[in-house]
Specification:
Distance between the termini: 66 Å
Order of helices and strands: HEEEHEHEHEEHEEHEEHHE
Number of strands: 12
Number of helices: 8
Helix content: 25-40%
Strand order of the largest sheet: 1-5-3-2
Structural class: alpha+beta
Radius of gyration: 24 Å
Largest sheet: 4 strands, antiparallel
Length: about 325
């Protein structure tokens, strides 16, 4: 009898010891950048938005990552690989913008660099967030009735340097500029290489998207930035394409986005948007431009959307 009692005592003690050890077990630390400098970005020029991400694993400069004029919302989207419509956060996360230069340890993978950025946001901005899923309104991107009108992308090694192509492919947001070219569009619209995508806006308000070697997933990402809900690729198209799309954005929505980023549109003498003598006038909406120019269409539907909800975050990062 004493032996059985003693044996039970050892078993209970062992269970208590396991519970005790588990309570004090720590989660493995996230990988970190070797060093990272965070500075407030300089104010943007009126009507001009320049945002970019350069370097990192998979690029010609894997040991460095540079984020230029990015918001905390941009950084969250990059770190967790989500879209802007998936981030639920205070409005100032779009207006406060930063320049970040980080040194990446040798041998870092792309997935590890995402974790490093997550760790940077947690340590320097005290970011705390959680995920949630809800049924919401979406747009399905479909092939239009008469079929796609897409140009297959062809490799051209002489078109642009690998550095430029890599920088364009990793850009976290399109580059938008108000510069009057010969047709009212920015001359920058003719730049870029395979894997790059650029958005330009004419003084009259028309927008033009130029994409080289773009997938449908990349296209839906950019379309979602112009709309009020997620865009889900349901085309079944798996190639890469050279795309030019010109359309008229929602004026109120565009002004709100630019104001949130601190780059108000260039204004004319009467207080309206600046115009150009070369401006050919308004373009079609994105809903009519897609079928006419690309043979694609948007259809309103309902679907599950994964959300990233910011619980707390500080406006000022800790010192470098």
């Amino acid at each position: 009898m004493k032996r059985n009692t003693l044996l039970r005592g050892f078993i209970v003690s062992g269970l208590m010891l396991c519970t005790f050890d588990g309570a004090f077990a720590q989660k493995p630390a996230l990988p970190s950048f070797e060093v990272a400098s965070i500075k407030p970005a300089a104010p943007m020029e009126a009507g001009r938005i320049m945002i970019g991400v350069r370097g990192g694993p998979g690029t010609p400069d894997p040991g460095h990552m540079t984020f230029s004029n990015v918001s905390l919302s941009d950084l969250i989207q990059n770190a967790w690989e989500v879209k802007s419509y998936q981030v639920t956060a205070p409005g100032w996360l779009e207006s406060a913008r930063f320049d970040i230069a980080a040194k990446v340890p040798d041998g870092t993978t792309k997935e590890q660099s995402k974790l490093m950025l997550q760790n940077l946001l947690a340590e320097r901005f005290k970011l705390v967030l959680h995920h949630s899923t809800k049924e919401a309104s979406i747009y399905a991107l479909l092939v239009a009735k008469n079929g796609p009108k897409l140009k297959d992308s062809v490799d051209d090694p002489n078109a642009v340097s690998p550095e430029v192509a890599a920088a364009g492919a990793r850009a976290s947001a399109a580059t938008t500029a108000v510069i009057g070219g010969k047709d009212g569009m920015s001359p920058m619209a003719k730049a870029g290489g395979r894997g790059s995508m650029m958005m330009t806006v004419a003084p009259g308000g028309r927008m033009r998207m130029i994409a080289n070697g773009a997938t449908m997933a990349r296209l839906t990402d950019v379309l979602a930035r112009q709309l009020d809900r997620p865009v889900v690729d349901m085309t079944g198209l798996t190639g890469t394409y050279d795309i030019t799309l010109e359309f008229a954005p929602d004026a109120a929505g565009m002004q709100a986005k630019m104001a949130a980023m601190g780059a108000m549109p260039a204004m004319g003498p009467e207080g309206g948007a600046a115009t150009s003598s070369n401006d050919p006038g308004p373009a079609a909406t994105i809903f009519t431009a897609l079928p006419d120019q690309l043979g694609l269409r948007l259809e309103a539907r309902k679907g599950p959307v994964d959300l990233v909800i910011v619980d707390s975050v500080e406006k000022t990062p800790t010192e470098n």
